[in-house]
Design brief:
The protein has helices spanning about 5-25, 45-60, 75-85, 105-110, 125-130, 140-150, 170-180, 200, 255, 270-285; strands at about 1-5, 35-40, 60-70, 90-95, 160-165, 185-190, 205-210, 230, 235-240, 245-250, 265. It is an alpha/beta fold. It folds into 2 domains: about 25-115, Rossmann fold, CATH 3.40.50; about 140-270, Rossmann fold. The strands form 3 sheets. The protein has a 6-stranded parallel β-sheet. It has a 3-stranded parallel β-sheet with strand order 3-2-4, sandwiched between helices. The radius of gyration is 19 Å and the shape is globular. It starts with a strand and ends in a 6-residue tail after the last helix. The structure holds ligand LMY7XDAE. The ligand Nc1nc2c(c(=O)[nH]1)N[C@@H](CN(C=O)c1ccc(C(=O)N[C@@H](CCC(=O)O)C(=O)O)cc1)CN2 binds next to helix 2, strand 4, helix 6 and helix 10. One of its GO terms (molecular function) is methenyltetrahydrofolate cyclohydrolase activity. This is Bifunctional protein FolD.
């Protein structure tokens, strides 16, 4: 079994980005600039956004964090997004998800300038991704593709089973895996909450990607011998033995599944860190006007 080391891969990607940014600056160019909007005080969301800001500093980007109380109105949020759309000093904009229930996330994503949508969630970028036009790929699926690529894992003709159909991970990764690219060219099955006999599907997977947020849902008897297993889950579960009172759990029962796999991602240290590096990569591409002129 080979561990897919997301932390090490993420560090390598960030070093590559930092070198490119240093070069841009040395040639008199400006640093890429990411603006991040956070609403509310959810512990996980605050950690992720703070880590994004720290990662920006590490690679030499500029960043702006805009933090609203949970009570912010949708109108206020939309007005801020429109203001940033017009701000030529900002290359990339993200709104951390999930948003509070009183805010319509689709309206928020649609009002964003798709040229600055470095999360790749705007319908224009989603559509471009589907038909193979230049687009920002959503960071987590992009990270999964990067991991498969860097570890040279064969995907062509393989059966890839994706568990979960979210717009952030499950749906886009299933599209990317089915496309005629490397990694890709896989035969893809998407499973979700209404799938009957989930195990009968997951057991057929050469590549199993799980993104449901249900700790330890995938047990050893649900995985084929020699499968590649990508665990996207990062749920905080109470744990009194830890100083912070919780620990992170993936969707896969790693301790019992790992020995059956050819490759597997750990949690933490698997797909999560790549999400941040691929966001940086998209922001760099935005600054270079590489995706949309
Ligand atoms: N606007 C967005 N919102 C959300 C996205 C996204 O891509 N854009 N994805 C997730 C959360 N997410 C990034 O925002 C994210 C999740 C996990 C990690 C990560 O590094 N996880 C570490 C553990 C970190 C910890 O201690 O909690 C790991 O798995 O090793 C980074 C980013 C939903 N919202």
């Amino acid at each position: 079994m080979i561990l897919l080391d997301g932390k090490k891969t993420s560090e390598a990607i960030q070093s590559e980005i930092a070198a490119e940014v240093a070069q841009i600056k040395a040639e008199g160019g400006k640093a890429p600039h990411l603006a991040a909007i956070l609403v509310g005080n959810d512990g996980g969301s605050m950690t992720y956004v703070n880590n994004k800001v720290l990662a920006c500093e590490r690679v030499g980007f500029e960043s702006t964090l805009i933090h609203y109380d949970t009570e912010v109105t949708e109108e206020e949020l939309l007005a801020k997004i429109k203001e940033i759309n017009q701000d030529d000093t900002v290359d990339g904009l993200i709104v951390q998800l999930p948003l509070p229930k009183h805010i319509n996330a689709n309206r928020v994503l649609e009002v964003m300038d798709y040229k600055k949508d470095v999360d790749g969630f705007h319908p224009v970028n989603v559509g471009h991704m589907v038909v193979g036009l230049p687009s920002y790929l959503p960071a987590t699926p992009y990270g999964i593709m990067e991991l498969l690529d860097r570890y040279k894992i064969e995907t062509k003709g393989k059966h890839c089973v994706v568990v979960g159909r979210s717009n952030i991970v499950g749906l886009p990764v299933s599209i990317l895996m089915s496309k005629c690219t490397f990694p890709g060219d896989a035969t893809v099955t998407i499973c979700h909450r209404h799938t009957v006999d989930l195990a009968s599907h997951t057991r057929q997977a050469d590549i199993l990607i799980v993104a449901v947020g249900q700790p330890l849902m995938i047990k050893a008897d649900m995985v084929k011998e020699g499968a590649v297993v990508i665990d996207v889950g990062t749920t905080r579960v109470p744990d009194a033995t830890r100083e912070r009172g919780w620990r992170l759990r993936g969707d896969v029962d790693f301790d019992n599944v790992a020995s059956k796999c050819s490759y597997i991602t750990p949690v933490p240290g698997g797909v999560g860190p790549l999400t941040i590096s691929m966001l940086l990569k998209n922001t760099l591409r935005a600054a270079k006007k590489e995706v949309h002129a």
